[in-house]
Design goal:
The chain is mostly helical and 76 residues long. It contains three helices and no strands.
Length: 76
């Protein structure tokens, strides 16, 4: 009985990695899955969203520069 159990365990230990390797190397499945996941996580940006983000960055940058300029003028 113990030999049968060992044979089963060895078969399981060998087939699991081989099966996972085979599944992971299915290019069509992998590409479809990865593309779908990427679209869910990072949807394509719209032009107006990009423009708003750039304007926000500019406002923050100007506020930071003004704050540093005021701090430099006060310390002088």
């Amino acid at each position: 009985m113990e030999v049968k159990l060992e044979v089963f365990r060895m078969t399981l230990y060998l087939t699991f990695p081989v099966t996972m390797f085979w599944i992971a190397n299915q290019a069509e499945w992998f590409e479809d899955y990865v593309i779908q996941c990427k679209r869910e996580l990072w949807p394509p940006e719209k032009e107006d969203q990009r423009r708003e983000l750039e304007e926000f960055k500019e406002r923050i940058w100007k506020q930071r520069e003004e704050k540093l300029l005021r701090a430099a003028q006060q310390s002088s």
